[in-house]
Specification:
The chain has about 350 residues and is of the alpha+beta class. It has helices at about 5-10, 45-60, 80-90, 95-100, 135-150, 185-190, 195-200, 235-260, 265-280, 285-300, 310-320, 320-330, 335-355; strands at about 25-35, 75, 105-110, 115-120, 125-130, 160, 165, 175-185, 205-210, 220-225. Strands 2-3-4-5-1-8-10-9 form an eight-stranded antiparallel sheet, covered by helices on one side. This is Protein-arginine kinase.
Length: about 350
């Protein structure tokens, strides 16, 4: 996998696979924050020290493979344009925070894009590992194995009492963020999600938008993750998250069934109106596109729409983002031109699907 392929392919290879409960859970992610012992953390470190860490990662891990995660590409942020960095953010391969620190930051990305390591973000290393569907336990198991592989050459900052030491106190302990990306259109339509979010927060979990902290839940996609990293084991954190996500899955399915039973005509109209907008629009904003894609995906999951695959909708959710549109056009676009190109790409992709 080359950098150009990372940029040109809207959907990561691992996203083409279905996982458990994939009609509702889009992905499961484990993120581990780690730091080098005896080195200043990125928030206070000098550029020279961070440069040494970056070069160490490049020397030791570029083009290496671990188990099924092959041919890691080392991508320095300083070598990327603003559009290219935005594309990597839209694919969840790097964070917006990493994209802002071009001089000292980099990423290490596996060929499948299932594993990415952010270098010199808030911490020296932030490991991200994704699985399709609801597979938190498997993701945790693989993240542990990958973490152990890195630790063979890296002396982590670790305290016997506090656990892994991190730049932000909220990550001290396990240094882990476990999260799932969920598509919850029925709970949103019925407005049940509004009372559920405060209840979820009270359980020590947090509900965010598709791009994490500070982002909105565009297209009825919500990210549910743990807040507590200290005082609980990784397994306990994952178990707590799994329990809540399991209840959300059940509630979403119940809400979908009730909509089908009580408002089937209205729901069908909502879904096919959205399909019509996507199929015939000549200009469409990103928020409207995300809403319509969400409705069409619901239609696919409910068996109403049979000639469009979910993988195409996953692809369009990324392909129609501002960074990807400009990468596709090979130029910087005004918002109006992006809206026109977005509508064109959606129409063309849906037409290809029908052939």
């Amino acid at each position: 996998m080359t950098l150009q392929q990372f940029m040109n392919e809207a959907i990561s290879p691992w996203m083409r696979c279905d996982g458990p409960d994939s009609d509702i859970v889009l992905s499961s992610r484990i993120r581990l924050a780690r730091n080098f012992a005896h080195a200043a953390y990125p928030i206070i470190a000098e550029k020279e020290e961070l440069g040494k860490i970056k070069e160490f990662i490049k020397k030791e891990y570029e083009h290496q493979s671990f188990q099924e995660y092959e041919d890691f590409q080392f991508v320095p942020m300083r070598d990327l344009s603003a559009t290219e960095k935005r594309v990597l953010v839209e694919k969840h391969l790097i964070s917006p925070h990493l994209a802002k620190h071009a001089d000292t930051a980099a990423s290490l990305i596996s060929k499948s894009e299932q594993v990415s390591v952010m270098v010199n973000e808030e911490d020296h290393i932030r490991i991200q590992l994704y699985f399709p569907g609801f597979q938190l336990n498997k993701a945790l198991e693989k993240a542990f194995e990958f973490d152990d592989w890195l630790e063979e050459k890296i002396n982590y900052a670790y305290d016997e009492t506090r656990g892994y030491l991190t730049s932000c106190p909220t990550n001290v302990g396990t240094g882990m963020r476990a999260s799932v990306m969920m598509h919850l259109p029925a709970l949103t339509i019925t407005q049940q999600i509004n009372r559920m979010i405060p209840a979820i927060n009270q359980l020590g979990l947090v509900v965010r938008g598709i791009y994490g902290e500070g982002s909105e839940a565009v297209g009825n996609v919500f990210q549910i993750s743990n807040q507590i990293t200290l005082g609980k084991s990784e397994e306990d954190i994952v178990q707590d998250l799994q329990s809540v996500v399991g209840q959300l899955i059940e509630q979403e399915r119940t809400a979908r069934n009730k909509l089908m039973e009580q408002s089937s005509t209205r729901l069908e109209d909502r879904i096919y109106r959205s399909y019509g907008v996507l199929e015939y629009s000549r200009i469409i904003e990103s928020t409207e596109a995300a809403k319509c894609l969400s409705n069409v995906r619901l239609g696919i999951d409910l068996g109403m729409i049979k000639d469009v695959s979910k993988s195409i909708l996953n692809e369009l959710m990324v392909l129609t983002q501002p960074g990807f549109l400009q990468q596709y056009a090979k130029e910087s676009l005004t918002p109006k031109k992006r809206d026109v190109l977005r509508a064109t790409l959606i129409r063309e992709r849906l037409q290809l699907e029908k052939k």
